[in-house]
């Protein structure tokens, strides 16, 4: 049709824009000067002939501007008690120009505190402060300490202090510090002990590649040089060298010259602990997360293991029926996979008995029974449901850890065959030296910021530690800060989540350990007696880990 516009098929799209135009001026009317009545009729405007209007509307029932009650400000001088300490950090707007270095420092500290956990998501802190926090077997990726006292003592270590710290680490020298240090920057013992606490041992050592964490690290490794990815001969050399280092660590662990070490692969992590630690009187190894394929492979190699979290669910009753069914399925899975018997359950007898009621009713020929394969797949469904979850934690004890050692050395799926981590051996982390290990140090830097307190700003000092923070390192650093910061500081802890489940208590209630025997069995493990005492306690954090730690008056409170 000539002159017909296809765009006029749906005119409401255009009309809605015209109707919204006068409404956009309503907020402006709400912000009119004081004393002006909001019920006053608006100025006459040109009517839209297409808009619908209620002929019975009057000035009294005309649409009124939305009234928004402004938030009531807090009373003058009052500071909300529930406001987290780290949320007080904010840049200061001053008249004088800010240098680039100061701006970068303030930006850094604000960036560090952006992704902190919300206080509401964490459980309440212990009601009574204590003088010791529980052992945390998870690996931390970053620590952020904050205090009202400066951390200048941790900056610019002298060459002699750095060398002395390395020597103290290699000789496992314990430094005794007073309860409070008046001038921390002038304390050589404090600075040397700080350098000593930052040391850890790593294999392999490839400076251009981030070797921790390995789970989900493809984006950080992609694009980096990896000449071994397409060279099988080079891969064999790397794996051979890695096997020697792995065996060396296990031998040190069995001789109680190494307290623990970690094996970090691109799919799972393994924590080996010496006898006497974590409330166990035998050498233990925990693996997480695991899959059905890995567990079947371990089972075929004759490795006896258990699933502590699945076994623990047998004694817990779920409230909902659905959760109860899932628990029963997991329990039946554990019974089948329990390698204490070393044999597979024969489902044929039980299955025949389960359908015996059909014969009693005389309808066994009319009802089709599922075959053995269908029954097996149904039971394996529950086993697959725990894959890649904390509930898939595997515990290996005693001499079976040596079989696990050989299994991991010969396991082909231990190393990725494709992707950025192809051909790269797993990462070994240890608190003590071992064959093929490389001494590494955590990165430390101090950052200053301003915090708004009432109507003024106060200086807030922070110390950031980046790298794989092992359990003994957290204990050592807090001991130093206790003296240097005069018993008042707080810390935000960032956990490598796949290792948080290592805090599960895997020791039996009957195996109570004596502290004296533990210290007697671990005299040369490279850790101080106080740290050994802490790590020998049974884990109490469960599947969680420490997220926030605070000291006030030389007493700890924490959140997990």
TrEMBL record:
Which UniProt keywords are listed?
Developmental protein, Nucleus
| Start-end of Polar residues biased regions | 49-60
Query: Which residues does the annotated region (Disordered) include?
Result: 1-81, 313-353
The Gene Ontology biological process annotation of the record reads: nuclear DNA replication
Quote the subcellular location field of this record: Nucleus
Q: Which GO terms describe its cellular component?
A: nucleus
Which family does the record assign?
Belongs to the DONSON family.
**PANTHER family per the UniProt record, alphabetical:** DOWNSTREAM NEIGHBOR OF SON, PROTEIN DOWNSTREAM NEIGHBOR OF SON
Q: What is this protein called?
A: DONS protein
Organism, per UniProt? Upupa epops
Q: Which gene encodes it?
A: Donson
